[in-house]
Amino acid sequence: MRLLVLLFVFSLQVAFSQESKNTTGNKLKGKELAKRRNQLFDSITKHFDSIANDSSVKELFKVEKSNEAIGPISFRINKKYAFGNYIDLKHVLEPIGYDFLHTTLDEKIKGELFYVFYKGNLADTQVKSDFEKKLLNQLKLIKKVQLENYTTYKVSIINSLLIKSFERDYKNVFDFQEKRLYFSGKIQQFINALNGFFPGKIHLIENSGDENLYDINIDVSSLEKCLEELKFLGFVIEENNEMVNHTYFKLK
User: Fold this and answer.
1) Nearest 5°: phi and psi at 90?
2) How far apart are CA 60 and CA 118, in angstroms?
């Protein structure tokens, strides 16, 4: 069965590769290529649906590197199976419970993309554990959990030097060269924007929000520089430290 699945996916990859070449040669439009790609993806989905409904196949696990995007990038989970299409490991591990504020992947595998198939209900704790073991074994990864200090920052605007905005529209512009954020909007929106650069690190103290709109220009090249400029702008910053378990996935 494993060989059949491998051959099936490989044949679809070859078919898609041929379609891509034909598309280039005939100068077909992007919509037509997308349509054919989705048709191939639908074929894969129907094939895995049939495996999930085949009572003679008790267990099936498959993971391999992917070089072509067949259909939409996704990790589909239902009661019978999980199927990842052209997806990185982070988006496979998140649905089974890993918080990537406290999880780190080996840099050598972080950018790799995979096809993943597993017959089983990942909502079941034991099945999820079995899937994880097979995944780590197949990819030759070691999981290490260690207790570490995790620092977050609570901010308030008691003595704000912020400039009220004359703009009425939300603006969030990042200057890649200067590494600065040019922002217009409410304070809570501003804090949300900062957490796009520093996930989970900066939180607005409850009841310290402000419904006014502000224009803010701030350095986001590093957390340290951002905090320094927040203080200059009049934000009061409270540092919070706690010990949390951090998970590392490293290649053997």
Assistant:
1) -55, -45
2) 6
